[in-house]
Amino acid sequence: MKTTHREYLTWEHWLQEEWNSPTRSDYYLMQLTQRVMQILRKNPNQVKLEDQKIPFSFGAKKKPTGSKLKAITAMAKAKWKAVMGSARKPKDGS
């Protein structure tokens, strides 16, 4: 099954929204952890249900720079040359 770039971006956006919206079972787990923390705390009223929600965030992808970028470029070129063959034909004197 192939996915287009647009379908992938739509799916990624949907996941960002879905993962930050707790489901019914997520709320049960949040309540359970809230109760456990209330038992262990001196002031149980300070533990709130929303404090148990774990926010999910997509980190911005860092672009490689400097020597890392050069190494990645050299590896990519080597792979392409191996697959496609060298662009230069060897000089055999003819």
Describe this entry's structure for a reader.
By secondary structure, the chain is an all-alpha fold. Helix content is 54%, strand content 0%. It is built from 3 helices and no strands. The chain is elongated and about 85 Å long. It starts with a helix and ends in a 10-residue tail after the last helix.
Q: What are the SSEs and their pairings?
A:
Layout: H1 5-19, H2 24-40, H3 66-84
Shape: elongated
Strand content: under 5%
Poorly predicted sequence stretches spanning 5 or more consecutive residues: none
Arithmetic mean of pLDDT:
84
Helix content: 40-55%
Helix and strand content put the structural class at mainly alpha
Radius of gyration: 26 Å
* Count of helix runs: 3
Largest sheet, if any? Answer: none
Distance between the termini: 49 Å
Number of strands: 0
Element pattern in H and E:
HHH
Summarize the structure.
With 94 residues, the protein is mostly helical.
Question: What would the keywords be for this entry?
Answer:
94 residues; mainly alpha; elongated
